Amino acid sequence: MNKTTFGCLIAVLVVALGLSVSFNLIQLVTLIGSASGLTEEVEPLNERFVSRGHGDISSKIVHLDLEGIISSMSANGFLEQALPSVDGIKRALDQAVADKEVKAIVLRVNSPGGEVTASDIIYHAVKKAAAKKPIVVYMDSVAASGGYYVACGATKVIASETTLTASIGVIMESMNYHELFGKVGLGSQTFTSGAFKDTLSGARPMREDEKVYVQALVNEMYDRFLGIVSEARKLPKEVLRNTVADGRVVTGRQALVAKLVDQIGYIEDAYALAKELGKAPEASVVKYHSAPTFLDALGVSAQHLHAPAKIELDLTGGAITKLQPGMMYYLPGSYLR
Q1: Active site residue 156
Q2: How far apart are CA 195 and CA 198, in angstroms?
């Protein structure tokens, strides 16, 4: 090996060592901050223009997106990018409300729904923000169940002709495998502190009193959903219960006839309505986005730095939604298959 080659090799090793030390220092600082309970100051979201207003007018309409299955749970792999962040939506709404230049908000919803509690949290955040600034929900391809629940917090709702919406109802599901266990010679022995502790266990048939108990839980959540829609759309609960609020999915046009939305249109119509409600006809339209950190650029998050390695094999190619058994969802039934 000649001196030139040897020198290049040393240089490469020095650079690699420097990068390794830097990365380990970043990891150490992150772990120390996490362990000590230090909280990093939240940086404001950056803005990207969708369309610019006329002249020197500084007023803005903020466009936010709620896309995918609504969940409060963290996810990896297939759903990691698909799940809308509850905290992310709340953060964006808070920033838009606090910004005096923002005159109104357009929330584009393209979601089949999701968890009951996560949907309710976002609905509450939207309703709270709408009490201070107009919010127009634009329903894209689908705004069903939990997606429609969220829309009920807005000032006005616009749907496309081809939007699928409504699906006003609650669904809860579990898998029963006790017969399969019997065929292969397997069994399950469970010790519980009460008669209902292992309700929804798939290892045994469900008792009649358990069915009544679970149905009562579902009915309670459904009645809340019905009350939210009734209040938002100024429609009696019994009228809703006996017509469109039976879990069915409807088109945007059918939703307009049922008074579930305010008008039919496109995203441009939502912008126009937001400008009208915000009394800012010359306003620019902007979207929020986060500035990537150094760790983001490396494809690493603080959560992943101290998370155990996990390998998952998805044999469905992402075709089946990963939902938690035994949880209540504002979702069309087809999403739990």
Answers
A1: no
A2: 7
Q: What is the pLDDT of residues 277-319, one digit of tens each?
A: 999 999 999 999 876 555 455 444 444 444 454 545 454 444 4
| 197 belongs to the catalytic site | yes
Q: 111, 145, 160, 167: which one is catalytic?
A: 145
Q: Is pLDDT at 202 greater than 90 in this prediction?
A: no
Residue 182 lies in a domain: no
What CATH number does residue 132 fall under? Answer: 3.90.226.10
Map tokens 């290049």 to a residue: 8
35 assigned to some structural domain: no
| Structure token digits, residue 273 | 């309505």
Q: How many domains does the chain have?
A: 1
Is 321 a member of any domain? yes
Burial profile 229-265: b = 16 or more Cβ within 10 angstroms, e = fewer: bbebeebeeeebeeebbebebbbbebbbebebbbebb
What residue numbers bound the domain in which 163 lies?
44-170+235-336
Tell me which of 197, 211, 259, 279 is the catalytic residue: 197
Q: What's the pTM?
A: 0.78
